[in-house]
Prior knowledge:
Elements (H helix, E strand, L loop, with lengths): L1 H15 L1 E3 L1 H23 L2 H7 L18 H20 L3 H17 L7 H15 L8 H10 L6 E3 H20 L4 H5 L4 H5 L15 H23 L4 H18 L5 H8 L8 H11 L5 H13 L3 H19 L3 H38 L8 H4 L14 E11 L5 E4 L7 H7 L3 H19 L3 E11 L5 E2 L26
Antiparallel strand pairs: 1-2, 3-4, 3-5, 5-6
Helix pairs in contact: 2-4, 2-13, 4-5, 5-6, 6-8, 8-11, 8-17, 11-12, 12-13
Organism: Leptospira langatensis
Keywords: Disulfide bond, Lyase, Membrane, Transmembrane, Transmembrane helix
Membrane topology: Multi-pass membrane protein
Amino acid sequence: xxxxxVFYKNLRYKSHANSPAWSLGAFRFGFGILLFVTATRYxxxxxxxxxxxxxxxxxxxxxxxxxPVLPAWLLYPIFIILCISAIGISLxxxxxxxxAIYLIGFLYFNLLDVSTxxxxxxxxxxxxxxxxxxxxxxxxxxxxxxxxYRNGRWSIPRVPNWSLWILKxxxxxxxxxxxxxxxxxxxxxxxxxxxxxLVRNTDFPVLGGFFTYPIxxxxxxxxxxxxxxxxxxxxxxxxxxxWAYGAVLIFHLLTWRLFPIGMFPWxxxxxxxxxxSPSWPLQARRFLKxxxxxxxxxxxxxxxxxxxKFPVTLRFLLAEYFFKLLHILEKPxxxxxxxxxxxxxxxxxxxxxFGTWALGIYVFLQIFLPLRHFLYPGNHxxxxxxxxxxxxxxxxxxxxxxxxxxxxxxxxxTQYVLPESYLTELQKTMMxxxxxxxxxxxxxxxxxxxxxxxxxxxxxxDVRVSLNGKKSRVFIDPNRDLMKVKDDFxxxxxVLTDSK
Length: 500
């Protein structure tokens, strides 16, 4: 017991010791840019309308059915606000206020429809939550640059070690539990679903021909397995870190090119830099400058040449507006100062009183959630119980066909309903293979018919699903009245096993 107490005391002391904030500042700057790209993609590709406005029905997370879909005249401005907040995060201007705004807005959009769930959206939410408590604006922020310009030298801001540790832990969880989830028969012995996906990429440069061979699936399956399981530990070791990061680059660039997984590779590539020394940005600058690869002088001369080509009056006008903008950004209005001060005071007070316990609970949840599928019987890849929020990345290729029988219990009349009558293509695809979404849609159909007739209604689902290229099987008990089934976290005995 004494040794445990000593260990805890030493850990607490080391976690509150300080490290240079260079790495954390660089992460905040780059992460803000990635957040900006994430929000603008919704506007550019029309996803706001496609995912939130066009559907007449939305699948909700358990306990969040009350979250409404706002009208278009509110949704679009919210995304614009997210873009502005992302810029504030990147520049470190009203940092915690911008983090809070982006976190709330991003969480809201993710709660609107379960069918849009993506692992990297979950990761973004977690990183935003962690950054809210971390003083990541001390370095590489606008104020930090201005102070360096005025003083003629860089200050060396510092942050507590725990702020770097918890971010490393979170990124490590994505890799490790992603690898642990791959220890299943389909991945190990059938190389599925990679064998299915690789043959779709035979036009890939150099490797395309290799993808046609069955061995390619096994090579990529086991490479992905060992990469996920061990790369976070190699990143922690300075001796192996450069090689491990090289593997990170190759792995994520390859998956980005092969598979449609959005921003996930870029988030992981940038986040993995947190495993390097807290002073890695300075070390990288010295390395490049020593070899003549740091073009600061040339870049400055180029800007000066371009600047001098402008007319004098225009230069004065631009300079005037530039300094006004700097003044606004450096010294935000009274509301901004009050909100930032209030949030900073709250986070400091909370961390002082509950920080250790809060960190412990967070770590426990991040270990428990990826393992909770062991609490349910059966193949979790089939039932998908405990599948979300568990870093089960690229594990399944499921195809399903669903229809519903809506029966009026008073008259005995039965209607056959196809999902496409109410759902978008994405919603239909996601619903056809996920039990909780099938149940939600069945309740929607039943309640709709009940409100129309006033009679008691039963709803049965006829669903067949194929998992990882296997023959399709009946997925939902066709004789079970889903109107009598409640949506909760208990074992779903109305989902048939994949062996039947």
